[in-house]
Amino acid sequence: MSRAFFITLEGPEGSGKSSQAKRLVATLRRTGRRVVSLHDPGTTAVGRRLRRVLLRERLALSPLVEALLFIAGRVQLVEERIRPALAQGAVIVCDRYYDSTMAYQGYGGGLPIAWLDRLGRHAIGCVRPDLTFVLDLSPEAGLRRVKGAKDRMERKALAFHRRVRRGFLTIAAREPRRCVVLDATQPPSQIHRHIANAVLARLAAHSR
Q1: Tens of pLDDT along 156-183?
Q2: What is the CA radius of gyration of the chain?
Q3: E strands within the chain?
């Protein structure tokens, strides 16, 4: 059985991480690997319902309520999809995960970082990614890319999105062995090459 490997893609609004996650999944599947594609929040029935509440419905939610709901959906995702996939030796590609809660509700929303970190890690049983790509760009550029009606997060003030970006970069700087920061203003094909090459190299080393 192949050794399991867990990859996440993170970044602020409009960074292109969802598109890059889809490209990576397609590339990895062409190599014959078993690949599981996930979205946080989402993928599970619980996650999809929470996603509607958190992003689509016009509700007044505090950063604490947001964090607890995101974490609840993540617990379900870990129990229902991530742990079984890891046990089967799959490569997991997840669009957002734990770092997004730290960046958005912690750095962006002002919740205590150390407390939120402990809560989030404990809730998911320390199921952490092996490799994380942080697609970085300014919030001004990212929000200009957003098409159609904006969701709850996208409607937040520019100052909030600047704090979120700083949060992602702070997380990446603290965990340089796990996190790779990429300039999201590059052409998508070039970003994909960087991601695919890094993943394939890490997978080769991981299988030894």
Answers
A1: 999 999 999 999 999 999 999 999 999 9
A2: 16
A3: 5-10, 35-39, 91-95, 131-136, 179-183
Helices (H), the chain: 17-30, 45-51, 63-77, 83-87, 98-101, 113-123, 139-145, 158-174, 188-206
**pTM of the predicted model, to two decimals?**
0.94
| C-alpha–C-alpha distance, residues 108 and 171, integer Å | 13
> Is residue 160 within 8 Å of residue 96, measured between CB atoms?
no
Q: Is 192 left (phi over 0), alpha (psi -120 to 50) or beta?
A: alpha
C-alpha 194/C-alpha 104 separation (Å) is 26
DSSP type of residue 178: T
Q: Judging by beta carbons within 10 Å of its beta carbon (0-12, 13-18, 19+), is residue 108 exposed, middle or buried?
A: buried
**CA 25/CA 28 separation, integer angstroms:** 5
Maximum C-alpha span of the chain: 50
